Every structure is written in C-alpha cells, then in structure tokens.
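job 3f2a | input accepted
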Amino acid sequence: HHVESNPAGIMDFFNCFFKGMSKGSGTIFLIFMIGGAFKMLEDTGTIKAAIAWLIKKTKGNYKIILPAIGIMMAALGSVGAGNNIALAFAPIMIMVCKKLKLDPIVAVAAMYIPSSTGTVSSPIEPFNTLIGQEIAGLPQMSGAGVRLIAWIIFVSFPIGCIVRWPMCRFSSGANPTSRRARSMTAHCSRF
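job 3f2a | predicted structure (191 res):
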C-alpha cells in the first residue's frame, strides 16, 4: 500500500525535541526526582549510615545481604515494578558492594537478575501474566500454583549463583596458582 510522502522541515526538526520531551515528561520527571532524592540522601549521610548499619547488623556477611536483596528485588519485579525499581536502587547496591569489597558485577547482578526473573516468572505480574492470559482466553490467575513453584525455582537459582560468585572469586586465598584456587576456578566457571 502506498504512503504519501510528508517530509519534515527544519522547524519540525527543532520542534521534535520539545514534543518528545513533552510526551516523555513523566519519565523525565521521575528520573529527576529519583536523582534529586538520592543526592539529598547521599549529602545528608543517610545512605552511608544505613549501609553501615546493614553491614554491622549482618557482620558484613554477603551471604545474608545478597539473598535478602535478591528476594526483595524479585518480589518487586513480580508485582510489575520490573527493572525500573532496580534502576532506583542500583547506586545504593554499588555502595554496599564497595563496602563489602565485592565486584561491581555483583551489584548489577543482585539488582537486575532477580528483578527480571521475578517479572518473567511471576504468577501475578499484571503485564506479562494477567494480560497474556486475557489475550489467550484463559481464566485470570489460572495455573498460579505452578507459576509460583516456577517463580521460586527461577528466582532461587540466580540468587544462588550471585552469592556463589564472590565465594568463587575470593575463597581461594592469596595464592592464585594454588591447587585450591585452580579447583575453585574450574568449578565456578561451569556457571
């Protein structure tokens, strides 16, 4: 089918930026609000105090901190918050991982992987699950038990891998050429 040509002029080109910002104003405003709130909390020392409290209470045990954060992110992802919420908490998680002397990859993985797996395997996620069931003509919440079991499995496995990553990286001790280090590296490379 034929579409009539409608070229954009120079003024249309310059106006498109303003029109785009108007259409995306909600998202732009949200990013400014999150950034401003984060900066305010950081400047007042609230975030550093909260991180220090968390590390003190858990005695710096990342085997407690990482699963707790992963479960929280998966739960938030399963109700439709998805990776948007991970974006808001990512700077805090990076600070936590720096204090615990963990790789930056752990911070990213602890936020995004559980959030994503929680979203895609959720029994109650409104966009993928509920709208998908409506399109398919299935009753709402049908198969919720099976999806809940799948959610537990799909969320547990990546959280286990995220907790295991620092153990594989740091448990071999100071000598990277030791037999134990080579064994741990070979074992962890399977994941």
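job 3f2a | The first helix runs from residue 10 to 23.
job 3f2a | closed
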